[in-house]
Design goal:
About 4% of the residues have low confidence. Helix 2 crosses helix 4, helix 3 runs antiparallel to helix 4 and helix 3 packs across helix 6. The protein is mostly helical. It is built from eight helices and no strands. 75% of the residues lie in helices and 0% in strands. It is globular and about 65 Å long. The longest helix is centred in the N-terminal third of the chain and has 40 residues. The termini are far apart.
Length: 265
Amino acid sequence: MGAAVCLGCAGIAFGPAFALVLLRVAAEPLRVIVLVAGAFFWLVSLLLASLIWFVSVQLSDQEDAKLQYSLLIFGAAVSVLLQEAFRFAYFKLLKKADEGLAMISEDGRSPISLRQMAYVSGLSFGIISGAFSFINVLADSIGPGTVGIHGDSPYYFITSAFLTMALVLLHTFWGVIFFDACEKRRYWCLGLVVASHLLASGLTFLNPWYEASLVPIFILTFCTGLWSFFTAGGSFRNILKCLSCEQEGDHRVTMYSALQVPFED
C-alpha cells in the first residue's frame, strides 16, 4: 500500500513536468543545458535563504513558539525574493548567451530563442523546487504508519502531491512571464510575478486547512497559465483549433519558371 501511494503521488506531482521534459526538452542539448543550469541557480537561492533563516533563528529566542513561526514566514518570504532575484540573474546570463550564440552561428540567429529559454528555465525552477519540497513527503509515504490515525487529515499525501504539481507549473508560467517582462521592460508584470509567488507561498501556511490553500493556488495556476499562454503569443483561435483538431491548410503558391532547360542532342 505504501509503495502504491508513493508512486501515485510521485506521478501526480511530477507527471506533467516529466512529460514536458520528455517531449520538449530532452531531445535538444541546449535546452538540457538550460534546464540543468536553471536548477543550479535555484539551489544557490535556496542556500542563501536557508543561511539567512538559520542565522535569524540562532539569534532569536528559540523558546518563543510564536516568534519562531514568524521567522518561518519571514524565511519563506526571503526565499521567494531570492528565487526571483536569481531568476533575473539567470535571465541576464541567458541573454548574454543568446547574443553569443547568434554571433557564432552561420545565419546570425541563435539556435534557441529567448522564449524557449524562458520556458525551460521556469520548468527547471519548478522541478527542483518541487523535488526539494516533496521528496521527504514521498519518503514518509512508503511507511510504516497510517496517515490520520491520530485524527489528522488522511489526505495529506494526495493534497501535497497536487500542491507540488501546481507549484511546478506555476514556476514554468512565471518563467515565461518574467523573461518577457524583462525583455520588454514591463516592470508591473515583474511585480505581479513576485506578488503571485509570495501569495502562493503564503497560502501554504493555511495547511492543513487544504480547502483554503489548494483551491486558491489552483485558481492562481489556471490564471497564470492563461497569462503565460497569451504572453508567449497564443490566442483563443489557437485554443479552438487545438480543441477541434483543425489543421492549417497549405496556402503556399508554387511558382514555375517560364524558362525551360534545352533538350540535349
